[in-house]
Amino acid sequence: MIDREQVLHVARLARLELSEDEVQKASGELSKILGHIETLSALDLSAVEPTAHVVDIDSALRPDVPHESLPREVAFSQAPDVADDGYRVPSPQA
Amino acid sequence: MTEFETVIGLEIHVQLKTRTKMFCSCLLGFAEEPNTRTCPTCLGLPGALPVANAEAIHLGLLIGMALGCELAPRSIFHRKNYFYPDSPKGYQISQYDEPLCGAGELGGVAIHRVHLEDDAAKTIHGGSSGRIDGSTTSVVDFNRAGTPLAEIVTEPDIRSAEQAGEFLRLLRTTLKTIGVSDVDMSQGSLRCDANISIRPAGSTELGTKTELKNMNSFRFIEQGIRAEVARQVGLVRAGEKVEQETLHFDPQTGSLTSMRSKEEAHDYRYFPEPDLTPVTITPQMLERAKAALPELPAARTARFEALGLHPDTAKLLAWRPELGDYYEQAAAAATQADGVAVANLVANELLQRLEADSDPADSKVPADALAALADLVAARAVTITGAKKVLDQLVAEGGDPAQVVEALGLGAVGGEDELVPVVQAALDANPDIAERLRGGDMKPMGVIIGFVMKETKGRADGKEVTRIVRSTLGL
Amino acid sequence: MSDILDLSAAQAIAAIDAGELDPADLFEAYRAASAAEDLGALSWVADAAPADLAALREQPLRGLPLAVKDLFCTEGVPSQAGSKILEGYLPPYTATVVQRLQDAGSSLLSKTHQDEFAMGSSTENCAFGPTRNPWDTTRVPGGSSGGSSAAVAAGLAPWALGTDTGGSIRQPAALCGIVGLKPTYGACSRFGMIAFASSLDQAGPFARDVTDTALLYAHMHGRDPRDATSVGLPEATVLPTAQRLDGITLGVPKDVERDGIEPGVRAAFDAALQTARDLGAEIREVELPHAEYGIAAYYVLAPAEASSNLARFDGVRYGLRTEAPDLLSMYTRTRHDGFGPEVKRRILIGTYALSSGYYDAYYASAQKVRTLIRRDLDAAFADVDLIVTPTTPGVAFPLGSKTDDPLSMYLEDYFTVPFSLAGVPAISIPCGLSEGLPVGLQLAGPAFSENRILDAAFALEGALGFDGSVARKGGAA
User: Fold this and answer.
1) Buried residues in C358-371 as b, exposed as e (16+ CB within 10 A)
2) Known active-site residue C168
3) Which residue out of C106, C107, C168, C307 is catalytically annotated?
4) Residue A71 lies in a domain
5) Contact (Cβ atoms closer than 8 angstroms) between residue B343 and residue B309
6) What secondary structure letter does DSSP report for C116?
7) A-C contacts (CB, under 8 Å)
8) Where is the Asn/Gln amidotransferase domain (chain B) (predicted)?
């Protein structure tokens, strides 16, 4: 039901590298889980409104008042690679 | 050969002038040291949550009102999922199918929608960090991440590069007037993408569109659109197809390059942002926005035109709020000069003498001084030629116009008593010309006027001289 | 010292107030027990009592030690959410709920292991090893808050914080023979809780009894301006006092029979219902026609939200990074190396369910089922005060017995998930033993009915007389 190609496509969207073994396994497991999920299709949902939030709160807004930002050294303390006062990452193309 | 029609839609991103970011309380950061305006929320730290800035909603409503948009009583935020180092959460919080503002119109261009979202961080490619392990690197600064943005989307209503530029100028001045943004393209507080397609004239179907990204001046946008339209027409005439793609315009070389990456087509996996509740617009919020809305440039232009101002002058004054304000102050202070005369003095004379884009209120010629000068002209106490000299002096040194007129000896020779003898002397000195004038040939009148001007050091009014010549000669 | 570890939190507070117990001694006794634990329940234990213990003892919670699930951010203390991708991560801020409890006089004693990013029902999906059930160390403590439930059951802490997304407090509470409360969605701030599924996650308390549960909970909830979805509760939490259930109507879902409940669990459940009747409660059948779709809806919504919530773990600003020559490989390898199999599975499901062309069939449908389940519960709560079910279909299962069958693990949440989807509060209290292992009874009520739930649970607890001390003495085995 969800084939190898689909697994690879979704994994790429999710930025997940999968080993060959993981791809094999995922295809079977996901099919089984999605099979269960598809029991939902037994319901006629055409006239039902979706629920995005269970609590009815509207406009939980914040006043435009500043707080202290994090000291840079605190923010950087957990970063894997810092250079030139910024977070260093490899460029998009090698 | 087939004629083509150009179809352009614009997407404009405007950084809103709040104090703090869209979803956290960090001060907005532009010129600060990199990564000094961040917190758990705008850095996307684990466990941190967004809360929407009430002021950003207010500014969004102001934009909606200024663009005559339908305002949604309830709007919601979605997550737009994509991976990039400038996206700290792995998604942008934006509005998707229920935006804050719906259809509107500005300057004859239909607005599709206006919605709110958070800005991305800045990625500096390459840089001094250079290469590590044989690969190039980038460095990310999250100060900008989370800056509130309004995205304004037009319908594909625009038919030329010029119209696009005209619309953008009106939009910019409108946004500036309502005070929601610095709208400075060079600083990135106003950014514009253009969707461009062509179709045979008369066709109603839309052709394949391309997207021109991130052009940083109105001039480049117009140039970019022209270049892209020419490229598309060239392709179609050669029997080739326009491909849907994103393009970058290089104003240096005038060339267009495709930004198409090897990535698969984007699949943003939008879904309602579960961390935020819907935004409901209350009557109080609408009241507040309405009260904060000043007269808009388009309305001001129309009002100035109704006063009799030339359309170009009206637009010039109305599209720059500080000019409009200066003009209105001067017009109100003037007791004899009419609004048109004051407008012309501001637009045609004063502005020529000031630095481009400067506010005349900051010059040495306050509005009431300009009004006084206009009154002197209206009272014929100084000629327009004299007034220009007075203005030169005022711009350079400041001062009271009447005193400057006096000091420079530019007081107009107004009365007949003074002018009649001079005119008579002119006719006497040029008998042949006097003869031609008497015979009905008015062409050499300038010679007489020139003589009088010379004699009066330019203080005489040309029209008055003509009148006296005619009466002297019995015409 | 072992006798002071037998005190409930309320008893310890009374002893402190009577001058018979020093909070520093209590802290040290728990600290020593925690440092020596061999259940794999704790990811971090404090070296010493907080420096401000003297000030804390003046507060309502008197400096009592607190165990906190790993996924709550605690400033300067490892907060890893059970994941290798956050191994050793030290947050620069503290979660609101933890901060509130510290302000109320809690001393941070330990952080507890959990299923990675709260995805699981056994605490086996933890990058730092599984946690064992103190009743039988060959069995799981439940999950995802299994470290917290095991710690409380084993007497490593008087009480603990957990989180519940689809059952992650109630199920481990049931399997460890303690009390666990999942509050109304929005009652407690989520700020600082490393997110699994934002529209479902709620913090909640674990304790040995209902009184302690209410006591801890009283200092957790409240509106937080940093969480737009938090509302707090309309009324303060009142310590429960009910002895009887006269005038209370309990609803038992009609289909509860057919849902694969183990016989021992069924027997304990039936006995608990009889106890409720004896206390004066009326038992009535209620219909929840869409409850059976709960698991399917949940396993769309939760992974979908998780796939997005976990996108921030990209090796840029914090956490694990696997170096690679280009950006895409850095992302994919970091996430490959940092996430465990269950997390990957759910990211894949969630990404699939949100992807172009599938959104309506999966995500939108699941949200609609959520509406139907809310309606079912609204109708039921118009008829009964509370709904009762077994918390789980079975008792604690052996380690490893369900790890190869994700779907069977998901069905652990069968009874807990519908209330999560509707955002209503539910508690699990121990109601007896089956095969020598604890059985949980779930009591759920309408939104904001925590006081009613706690009161009914207290009355039942008194009558049921469950003895949880077995686990603190080293288990039944």
Assistant:
1) bbeebbbbbbbbbb
2) yes
3) C168
4) no
5) yes
6) G
7) 177
8) 325-473
Give yes or no for C242 touching A (CB within 8 A): no
Give me the residue spans of the domains in chain B: 4-291, 295-407, 416-473
The Cα–Cα gap between B185 and B168 comes to: 11
Asked about C8 being catalytic, the answer comes back as no
pLDDT tens digits, one per residue of C447-475 = 999 999 999 999 999 999 999 998 988 75
Please check whether residue B451 touches A, CB under 8 A: no
Which residue shows structure tokens 């600082």?
C192
Nearest to C358 by CA among C307, C300, C406, C312: C300
Domain that holds residue A30: 19-43
Spatial CB neighbours of C360, under 8 Å, sequence gap ≥ 6: none
pTM: 0.90
DSSP secondary structure code for residue B154 in this structure: E
Nearest to C228 among B267, B269, B277 (CB): B277
Query: Contact A48/C372, CB-based, under 8 Å?
Result: yes
Q: Is the pLDDT of residue B261 over 80?
A: no
Q: What angle do CA C121, C80, C181 make, to 5 degrees?
A: 45
According to DSSP, the residues that pair with C250 across neighbouring strands are: C283, C386
Distance CA B424, CA C323 (A): 97
Residue among B185, B188, B187 at smallest CA distance from B168: B185
Contact (CB, 8 A) for C435 and C157: no
The three-state secondary structure class of A5 is: helix
- Cβ <8 Å between C199 and B274: yes
Q: How many domains does chain A have?
A: 1
Contacts of A20 in chain C (CB under 8 A): none
Check B137 against A83: CB less than 8 A apart: yes
Q: Give the gap in angstroms from C-alpha C353 to the nearest C-alpha of chain A.
A: 9
- The structural domains of chain C, ordered by start, are 9-248+382-473 (3.90.1300.10), 292-356 (no CATH)
Q: Is B47 on the interface with C (CB under 8 A)?
A: yes
Q: Does the annotation mark C144 as catalytic?
A: yes
pLDDT less than 70: residues of chain A: 59, 93-94
Residue in the block written with tokens 């403590």: C141
Q: Which CATH class is domain B416-473?
A: mainly alpha
Higher pLDDT among residues C461 and B187, named by residue = C461
Q: Is C62's pLDDT higher than 90?
A: yes
Contacting residues of B for C89, CB less than 8 Å apart: 46
Give the separation between CA C427 and CA C68, rounded to whole angstroms: 19
SS3 category, B335: coil
Torsion-angle region of residue C279: left (phi > 0), alpha (psi -120 to 50) or beta?
A: alpha
- Prior bond to C144 cis, omega within 30? yes
| Contact by Cβ (8 Å): C201, C118 | yes
Pairing label, strands C426-434, A82-83: unpaired
* pLDDT band at C477; cut points 50, 70, 90: very low
Q: Which chain C residues touch A53 with a CB distance below 8 Å? A: 199, 229
Q: What mean pLDDT comes out for the span B304-319?
A: 94
Convert the pLDDT of each residue in B192-224 to its tens digit: 999 999 999 988 888 999 999 878 889 999 999
ipTM above 0.90, yes or no: yes
Return the pLDDT at B426. 87
DSSP conformation class of C13: H
Which residues from C are below 8 Å from A51, CB to CB?
A: 367-368, 370-371, 374
> Minimal Cα distance from B25: which residue of C?
C226
Q: Which of residues 38-77 of A touch C (CB under 8 A)?
A: 38-41, 43, 45, 48-55, 57, 60, 62, 70, 74-75, 77
Q: Reply yes or no on whether the pLDDT at B292 is more than 90.
A: yes
* Confidence grade of residue B260 (pLDDT, cut at 50, 70, 90): low
Interchain proximity A53–B52, CB inside 8 Å: no
| pLDDT tens digits along A58-76 | 768 999 999 999 999 999 9
